[in-house]
Amino acid sequence: MALTPLNDSMITGSQDYASIDNSISSMIIDQKRHTRPWFIMFTFGVMGTGLLGAAITWLLYQGVGIWGNNIPTAWAFDIVNFVWWIGIGHAGTLISAILLLLRQPWRNSINRFSEAMTIFAVMCAGMFPLLHTGRPWVAIYWLFPYPNIMGLWPQFRSPLMWDVFAVSTYFSVSLMFWFIGLVPDFATLRDQSKNKFARVLLAIACLGWRGSQRHWHRYEQAYLILAGLSTPLVLSVHSIVSFDFASSVVPGWNVTVFPPYFVAGAVFAGFAMVLTFAIPIRKLYKLEDLITMRHIDWMAKITLATGLIVAYGYTLELFYAWYSGNPNEWDMTLLRRLSGPYAWAYAALIICNIVAPQAFWFPSLRRNLTVVMIVCQFVSVGMWLERFVIIPMSLTANYLPSANRMYYPTFWDFGMFAGTIGFFIALMFLFIRFMPVINIFEVKDLLYKLLGHRDSQIALKPVEVETVGGAH
Amino acid sequence: MSHGAPKKRGTFGLVAEFSSAEALLEAAEQAGSAGYRETDAYTPFPVHGLSDAMRFHDIRMPWLIFTGGLVGAFTGFTLQWYTATIDYPLSVGGKPFNSLPSFFPVTFECTILFAALTAFICTFALNGLPKPYHPVFNTPGFQRATVDRFFFAIEKSDPMYDSEATRKFLEGLGAIAVSEVEN
């Protein structure tokens, strides 16, 4: 039996097409699989969403004065959170698009829910700059080019304008990519579901998909090209986000290494978040045969690699501060980070982003789920701190000492951030319950490939996959 | 629109059911060699090599997407150029009205957006979806076409179609079941 490739442990257990189907689709068809942990997490998420609602309502009523933003620190938590959330989304696109182009079939088991994460994370991200305008409905004319009664147009020379286009394109393309992938899976669910109402709903959602070879042919063309389009797109999005800072003259922001270093940081934080969700979900819903230790191992390795790029970015920031010969850069990027009032944040960031991920050098630690979870939390916190160190901290000390002023966040700053986390959790858990959390047809395709295109053997009996002592 | 009106129920064709992609590929290859052209396969996942086996080739999609991208690039750039140089010229830091380098990011994003929208729309438009009804859904056991069974249809419109001979041919290919399906 041609079992050698399967020993790479991308799929384990006794499997055929129907068993793959069953382990994923039963999460939607058999709603009883969602037990207490689901309800606890969802309640938690809904409470966060409520807090978010309160924070937004109070903000719209009172104005941005309820936040700790001041002059010179006009950009603070709102922009920190925006960049953090956008970055988390990037892992989804990396997994779904870049790994597809690089022919990494292991992505098939994790692309669906990381794409969902992308969409939800961008939704959370988008709220912040929009609400930072204070009165979003008034802000529309300088965000979107439409012929308005004042005869004004947006300022296209501004990186903020580029941001609007980059983020809205990113959201639209991610959503289309996600939906296209969902259509054949909705058809599978339509054919599996016993509930009449669900069947009708799924039949509408899958647009009458029948798996015709001609359809698949065009489908694959479109999917591959969409991946090819998403790849430069995802790189451009975080590069453009970094232009908001890099193209200014603020000490601590004006660094040319920002675009690649922001992109690496985004993937770094994103993979940490994918792991944070993947590990509990695979355990809770017994998906260990589809999201295997091999996947966790690979994701941990990518986290480590991008973490090292980020570490290189930190080093270059310091180098440029010295090499530029600009005393203000030196003062902000080195002196204030090492011994200024926010030095604790910089120290914590180094520990979280550089020291903690080094655990992933060791195979035994990469295979220890507790260690992986802990390191991922460090990375999430660290990447948030990185944006805190760059964004508000750089603004607190400018060229003139008379303009220096400390920044202190308020309850509402934290409230809105916690609120978006709750909103994200609520959406993720709704997604887990009502949509296929793993791409069903792509995993079948993966099984077909792993069998060396000889699937007649599984038509007779499911393949017993030998597990080679965990990951290797 | 012919929906709703009671239709004459003719024959759609013969649909054979296979238990593996391997068997389906072999069948498609054989049917192609035998000269059947009005055929289609229904599979739970895209089977690599099936398009070649069925001699099906369609490259409209990449060209349409490319055109979409070009339209996007043109739209994105023209929007910025028109607003910044013709409709509301505004000197910002003495930069030229047509600030070409600053206009690149938005032009790029519009290229991607338009190309992706074209890809999205064309996937469904060229495939004729949404299509709630198709005769092949009448095939017994077709619910498994999205799960673990592979179907191969020879349609009645094929010049070589003959309900007896074609059925024998399909049975000879190792099908689990062959059924004549009504429209």
What does this molecule look like?
The complex is a heterodimer of chains A (472) and B (183). Chain A is mainly α. Chain A has one domain: Formate dehydrogenase/DMSO reductase domain (Formate dehydrogenase/DMSO reductase fold), CATH 1.20.1630. Helices cover 70% and strands 1% of the residues of chain A. Chain A has a two-stranded antiparallel ribbon. Helices cover 45% and strands 13% of the residues of chain B. Chain B is rod-shaped, with a radius of gyration of 25 Å. Chain B has a four-stranded antiparallel sheet with strand order 2-3-1-4, with helices on one face. The longest helix of chain B is centred in the middle third of the chain and has 28 residues, at 60-87. The mean pLDDT of chain B is 87. Chains A and B meet through helix 1, helix 6, helix 8, helix 16 and helix 17 of A and helix 1, strand 2, helix 3 and helix 4 of B.
Short description:
Chain A has 472 residues and is mostly helical. Chain A is built from 17 helices and two strands. The longest helix of chain B has 28 residues.
Assign a percent range to the helix content of chain A.
55-70%
Portion in helices of chain B: 40-55%
Mean pLDDT of chain A: 88
Q: Report the end-to-end length of chain A measured between terminal Cα atoms.
A: 22 Å
Can you tell me the CATH class of the largest domain in chain B?
Alpha Beta
**Fourth CATH level, the homologous superfamily of chain A:** Formate dehydrogenase/DMSO reductase domain
Computed Rg of chain A: 24 Å
Tags for this entry?
A: mainly alpha; Formate dehydrogenase/DMSO reductase fold; 17 helices; globular; disordered N terminus; B: 183 residues; alpha+beta; Alpha-Beta Plaits; 2 domains; four-stranded antiparallel sheet; 5 helices; rod-shaped
Secondary structure layout plus pairing:
The complex is a heterodimer of chains A (472) and B (183).
Chain A: E1 13-15, H1 17-29, H2 36-62, H3 77-101, H4 111-132, H5 136-143, H6 159-192, H7 196-205, H8 213-246, H9 258-284, H10 293-323, H11 327-339, H12 343-355, H13 363-366, H14 369-396, H15 411-434, H16 440-450, H17 456-460, E2 463-465
Antiparallel strand pairs in A: 1-2
Chain B: E1 11-18, H1 21-34, E2 39-42, H2 50-53, H3 60-87, H4 100-126, E3 150-155, H5 163-171, E4 177-182
Antiparallel strand pairs in B: 1-3, 1-4, 2-3
Helix pairs in contact in B: 3-4
